[in-house]
Design brief:
It is an enzyme of class 3 (hydrolase). This protein has 137 residues and is an alpha+beta fold. It has two helices and seven strands. The strands form two sheets. It has a four-stranded mixed sheet, sandwiched between helices. It has a three-stranded antiparallel sheet with strand order 3-2-7, with no helix packed on it.
């Protein structure tokens, strides 16, 4: 499954995370918002659509961060992850999910699905303005 993932960074450096609903795969875990890339959609288009639908923000600027392939017992995912460096709107959990703005150093205090650990590692390695250097394709 090809998934577009957004690491949304606010002007104060805090990062948007969302808690997966209990009935979803890995329910109760925190994640970076995003969703499945649909047929005929670019990753960027999918990410813009998903962020608008899920957390009510409109992407203005994004740059590639990292691509991570992870095999769970029930499925394999490709997390095509982009850093959103400019957006408009006020983030809210439009699907009933809890959201939080968290400092990079505090991300380790939240329980994420295993596949998301690579995103956190890439974020810690990336220097501001050079997130694309961490991208691994």
């Amino acid at each position: 499954m090809h998934v577009a993932v957004g690491v949304v960074v606010r002007s104060d450096g805090k990062i948007l995370i969302a808690r997966r609903l209990r009935h979803q795969h890995m329910g109760g875990c925190w994640e970076f918002p995003g969703g499945k890339v649909e047929a005929g959609e670019s990753v960027q288009q999918a990410l813009c659509r998903e962020l608008r639908e899920e957390v009510a923000i409109a992407v203005r600027t994004l740059e590639p961060l990292v691509a991570i392939r992870h095999a769970y017992r029930e499925k394999t995912v490709l997390l095509d992850t982009w850093q959103v460096t400019a957006f408009s709107g006020q983030a809210e959990g439009r699907e009933g999910q809890e959201i939080a703005w968290v400092a990079l150093r505090a991300l380790d205090q939240y329980h994420f699905p295993d596949a998301n650990r690579g995103i956190i590692t890439a974020l810690k390695r990336a220097r501001p303005g050079t997130a694309h250097s961490a991208r691994g394709r």
